[in-house]
Design brief:
The chain is built from eleven helices and 19 strands. By secondary structure, the chain is α+β, with helices and mostly antiparallel strands. Bound molecules: zinc ion.
Length: 405
């Protein structure tokens, strides 16, 4: 039975692609790769650090509006473009995050080297944003009429400490109208992210009396204390199944070379495929940091309360998994079969975590082309072949939304 229905849907994608309206949309994608890449460069060169996405959002808003979409910005800062279907109660939502991990002042000018574009954020998520712009144009050019409403969103707060606040606001406002969510993040078309990795992020700080490096020598040192804690924590073994990870991502503290610091802070990211394992990892992290401070107290023979350790949550991402028999997954697989694209199922931590944790069908997909070095200053993107990713998104969205004939 399953084979029969899968084959029936396969034919449906071929039929869909041959529909005159859809064919116009696909044709536009084929003819407009250079335009799409231009938009990507323009958007990437507008800085969008965490919590400061508004300027890039405005530029995206203009692009989407130029394709005839009704565009608004919600309270969270999400740029939301709607294309009404005949059934207003059903929504297919496609989102790409506006924010980058790079702080204000980072040089985001796009440079070229051979076929590659080089700039922080060019792939993650310049690709996703360019894909939104291209899909808006392709839908407009196709003049396809759909049953479900198609919503394209440049959303805020995906990276760093944003805590997926943009996607949280979207699932709140659309609620039960969401029939599927696709997060477009990065380029690669060889995966379908169907599982959201749970994560917890913390800022651990240790404070102490501080002092002069010479005259107060022997006082407990918060930097030394937290270093002891980090070393202890890094010795913690994590299982490979469920796959789990930890990272100490930044450290900050102290004022000068000849002062004993009075405070230090580190930021820690913990991830796991399993919430219970993540809970164990968090407990181990708290224990190691407390033990590090205790050891520093003991070595310096200080009073027990000379150092204070505190742990503050910077955000949590819930886990979630798309059921194997979901229509969303079957649709993307059928589109992949039609486009001769090979893809595998992936697990990751993306905007899709939020809808998945609420039982709303969701995936994360790439927008096409190739890229690398994401979250580094050496990030690159090669747009060759990006049409495949865009056609894949176009066919999936239109198929899910249903064509009105
Ligand atoms: Zn991303």
């Amino acid at each position: 039975m399953a084979t029969l229905s899968a084959r029936a849907t396969d034919d449906a994608i071929a039929k869909l692609a041959g529909d005159p309206a859809c064919a116009r949309g696909l044709q536009w994608i084929d003819n407009s790769a250079a335009w799409t890449t231009e938009q990507q460069i323009r958007l990437t060169e507008i800085p969008a650090p965490e919590f400061d996405e508004a300027r890039r959002g405005e530029a995206l808003k203009e692009l989407l509006a130029a394709s005839g979409f009704q565009v608004r910005t919600d309270k969270a800062g999400n740029v939301i473009a709607e294309r009404a279907g005949s059934d207003a109660k059903s929504v297919i939502l496609l989102a790409a995050h506006l924010d980058t991990v790079f702080p204000a002042g980072t040089d985001v000018k796009v440079k070229r080297s051979g076929g590659r574009l080089l700039a922080p954020g060019i792939s993650d998520n310049g690709v996703g944003l360019a894909s939104l712009a291209a899909l808006a144009r392709a839908l407009a050019e196709s003049r396809v009429r759909t049953t479900k409403t198609i919503v394209l969103v440049g959303d805020v707060g995906e990276e760093g400490e944003g805590n997926l606040r943009g996607m949280r606001a979207l699932t709140d406002s659309y609620g039960s109208r969401l029939s599927a969510v696709i997060a477009v993040d990065g380029p690669s078309t060889d995966y379908i992210t169907t599982q959201g990795i749970a994560s917890r992020r913390f800022e651990v700080s240790i404070t102490g009396p501080g002092g002069h490096s010479w005259s107060d020598f022997g006082a407990p040192n918060p930097i030394t204390a937290i270093s002891r804690g980090i070393v202890k924590f890094s010795a913690v073994q994590v299982p490979s199944d469920p796959r789990s990870s930890f990272n100490v991502g930044s450290i900050e503290g102290g004022t000068s070379v000849n002062s004993i610091p009075s405070s230090v802070k580190v930021k820690v990211d913990l991830r796991s495929e399993d919430e219970a394992e993540l809970g164990r990892l968090e407990a181990a992290m708290r224990e190691a940091m407390a033990a590090g401070a205790k050891e520093e107290i003991s070595v310096t023979q200080s009073a027990n309360d000379a150092l204070k350790t505190s742990v503050r949550s910077l955000g949590t991402r819930p886990a979630g998994k798309l059921p194997d028999d979901s229509l969303l997954l079957a649709t993307i697989r059928n589109v992949d079969t039609y486009l001769l694209n090979r893809s595998r199922l992936e697990r990751s931590s993306t905007d899709a975590n939020i809808p998945l944790s609420m039982g709303i069908p969701a995936v994360a997909l790439g927008g096409g082309g190739r890229g690398g070095g994401s979250h580094t200053l050496d990030e690159w993107y090669d747009p060759a072949g990006r049409e495949l990713g865009l056609k894949r998104l176009f066919l999936a969205v239109v198929s899910l939304a249903g064509v009105e004939r």
